[in-house]
Amino acid sequence: MLMDKYGDPEVVQGILRQTIWQGMTTEQLSDSWGRPVAIDDKVYKSKTVQVYKYGQTGKNRFSSRVRIENGSVVGWEQK
C-alpha cells in the first residue's frame, strides 16, 4: 500500500521504521508516527508553521514535537 502511495522504497522503509526526516511531508509523518495528539498552527506573512505534538505526558506537555513549515518537516525534539 505504501509503495503504491509513494513509489519510493527509501521513503517506505523510513515510514515502516517509524523514523522522521527533514523534508518529509505531513502525510508521510502521519503514516510514520500516526495522528498527532495536538497541532499548533501559526500563519506568518511568508510561511505557515505547524507543530505536531506526540506522546502527551501532562497538561500541554508532550514527549515529542515536530516542526513543519509550508507542509514539510524542518525539525523536531524528543524528550
Characteristic terms for this protein:
four-stranded antiparallel sheet, Beta-lactamase Inhibitory Protein, Chain:B, domain 1, single chain
Write a brief structural summary.
The protein is α+β, with helices and mostly antiparallel strands and 79 residues long. It has helices at residues 2-6, 9-16, 26-33, and strands at 38-43, 48-58, 61-69, 72-78. Strands 1-2-3-4 form a four-stranded antiparallel beta sheet, covered by helices on one side.
What is the average per-residue confidence, as pLDDT, rounded to a whole number?
95
Unreliable residue runs: none
Radius of gyration: 13 Å
Q: Tell me the strand order in the biggest sheet.
A: 1-2-3-4
- The first-level CATH class is given as Alpha Beta
For the biggest sheet, the summary is:
4 strands, antiparallel
**What percentage of the residues does DSSP assign to strands (E)?**
35-45%
Kindly identify the CATH topology.
Beta-lactamase Inhibitory Protein, Chain:B, domain 1
Terminal Cα span: 32 Å
The total count of strands amounts to 4
Following the backbone from N to C, one meets helices and strands in this order, namely HHHEEEE
Q: How many DSSP H or I helices?
A: 3
Gross morphology is globular
Helical/strand content category: alpha+beta
Question: Mind telling me which CATH architecture this is?
Answer: 2-Layer Sandwich
The amount of helix comes to 25-40%
Tally of structural domains: 1
